[in-house]
Write a structure and sequence with these properties.
The protein is built from 17 helices and 19 strands. It is of the alpha/beta class. It has a domain of 79 residues. It has a 19-stranded mixed sheet, covered by helices on one side.
Length: 497
């Protein structure tokens, strides 16, 4: 690998002699922002044509960067292009972008009104772009989406099917590169995506290949998200009927719920995946979301996150939702409940999984451990997680037990787990210790199933992280991996550092 940096004379000398190194496989060039991109890296130059073994090329001039691994005998077939700020791009840069045949384009700063023509021009000149990623302020979401939709439609009518399949809008809290690293690390795991995402928002606009139809996936857990923000109302009013995935956080309140009700009532609902935390919804907001859910004929995933149930109105809300959606809910997460009386009321609606025929994910946690329902919770948790045959209920795929339990309660809970379909197991932020890890390893290795589908064991914040005995901990993890070879184990283990 050769890295060519800022020194102009040294750079020129190295570039002039680079063709003498025909076996180079990687080149990284970093130039000053006023350097002409075409002079540095014209794909038709003999310099790259002589490098038949080149596998990776990275060029960065500050206002524009390019990376590619799609090179054949020095010829760049496709690339990924990044533009920090559309305002800095020159006409010469536009031509250079076209020569690099981009399939992915990243824009790091919000496109303002005056940038719209330039963005449209880049898309029209580069029909090979399949993935467009823009770091964008929430107030510009609707305008940018409309611009990309209209530009893509013009391309479709004039040139046939355009390649653009996904527009991804990230909020402005994190740099785009950092957010993309988060998404890449998530590797498709919904849990990891949620954990790594934190409170950042994302909107994916997915385009249909053969038409102008769109589908929107949106996660509104963002510091930017405010229910009374005109930008939020505008986004939902325009695109609510196209939303196929919606993550609605605790700040999701009556106004956006009613707007979603209004637009789906007018244009129907496309929602397939709904994750809702109804903390801020009143009865009117809950009724609005109920109508949205009833219109969502294609809904296959419904997650209820029920918080603050020590408060009377939140507990009543939880009971209402559990009863109302027991035939459709696929995921239930409960947190912040303390008193035995609260648990007794929940058990009347949710005694086990038999009344919830589609439930595949169940998680319970309690922040205040000293007041948590230790012994009283054991039998209920066992009823929820164990295999159920009367009537037959699908095995859980995701299970979280994040409360402090007595050792005998942990043993009973671990022995009750049905591993036949379980993919994620969460014992984070609780008193799950090395003793329980050994019980878990014994339980897994004693399973009748030769290879288990378990992909994630989350032990972050548990007592296992503080264990000093590296040999025993490593041995137990090895045993677990033998029966669950795909597993990722999350946690900062002191004994394994």
């Amino acid at each position: 690998m050769v890295k060519l940096s800022e020194d102009p004379l040294g750079r020129l000398l190295k570039i002039q002699g680079i063709e003498r190194w025909p076996y180079l496989t990687e080149i990284t060039m970093i130039q000053s922002s006023n350097y002409p991109m075409s002079a540095m890296s014209n794909p038709s130059t003999d310099i790259f044509g002589s490098l038949n073994y080149l596998e990776y090329l990275s060029l960065d001039i500050g206002r524009l960067w390019m990376t590619t691994r799609d090179i054949s005998q020095g010829d760049i077939k496709t690339s990924s292009i990044g533009i920090p700020n559309l305002k800095d791009i020159t006409l010469e840069d536009l031509e250079t972008i076209r020569k690099y045949r981009p399939i992915a384009l990243t824009i790091s700063k919000t496109p303002e009104k005056e940038d719209e023509d330039r963005l449209a021009s880049i898309l029209q000149q580069n029909p090979s772009i399949t993935f467009l990623r823009i770091q964008c302020h929430l107030g510009r979401y609707a305008a940018v989406i409309n611009l990309v939709i209209s530009t893509r439609e013009k391309m479709r009518r004039s040139r046939g099917r355009p390649e653009l399949m996904v527009l991804r809008l990230l909020d402005t809290t994190l740099p785009g590169s950092a957010k993309e690293a988060v998404l890449e690390k998530a590797g498709g795991s919904q849990y990891l995506l949620r954990q790594l995402f934190g409170s950042e928002s994302i909107v994916d606009v997915n385009f249909d290949n053969a038409s102008s139809t769109i589908g929107i996936r949106t996660d509104l857990r963002s510091n930017q998200f405010k229910s009374d923000d005109p930008a939020v109302r505008d986004f939902i009013r325009q695109f609510g009927h196209s939303i196929i995935t919606l993550v609605a956080p605790g700040s999701f309140s009556d106004p956006p719920a009613m707007l979603l009700d209004e637009c789906t009532g007018r244009l129907t609902s496309s929602i397939v995946h709904l994750d809702i935390t109804p903390t801020s919804l009143t009865t009117a907001g809950l009724d609005a979301m109920n109508r949205v859910i009833n219109r969502s004929k294609g809904l296959t995933y419904l997650r209820l996150t029920l918080k603050n149930m020590r408060k009377g109105q939140q507990l009543e809300k939880a009971l209402l939702l559990l009863e109302r959606y027991r035939d459709r809910v696929t995921s239930v997460h409960m947190s912040d409940w303390y008193e035995d009386s609260c648990l007794a009321k929940i058990k009347r609606v949710l005694p086990d999984r038999s009344r919830f025929p589609r439930l595949e994910e169940f998680s319970v946690d309690c922040i205040n451990w000293d007041r948590g329902p230790r012994g009283t919770a054991r039998q209920w948790i066992i009823s929820m997680i164990s295999a159920q045959t009367q009537p037959p209920t699908p095995p859980l795929k995701v299970l979280g037990v994040k409360i402090h339990l007595w050792p005998q309660d942990w043993e009973a809970v671990i022995n009750a787990i049905d591993f036949s379909k379980l993919q994620e197991l969460h014992f984070d932020n609780c008193n799950f210790s090395e003793v329980q890890l050994k019980l878990l390893a014994d339980r897994i290795t004693g399973s009748k199933t030769l290879l288990l589908p378990l992909k994630l064991l989350n032990l972050k914040g548990s007592k296992v992280e503080k264990v000093d005995n590296a040999v025993d901990t490593r041995a137990m993890i090895v045993r677990i991996r033998q029966r669950a070879p795909q597993i990722i184990i999350e946690g900062q283990f002191k004994s394994l550092q």
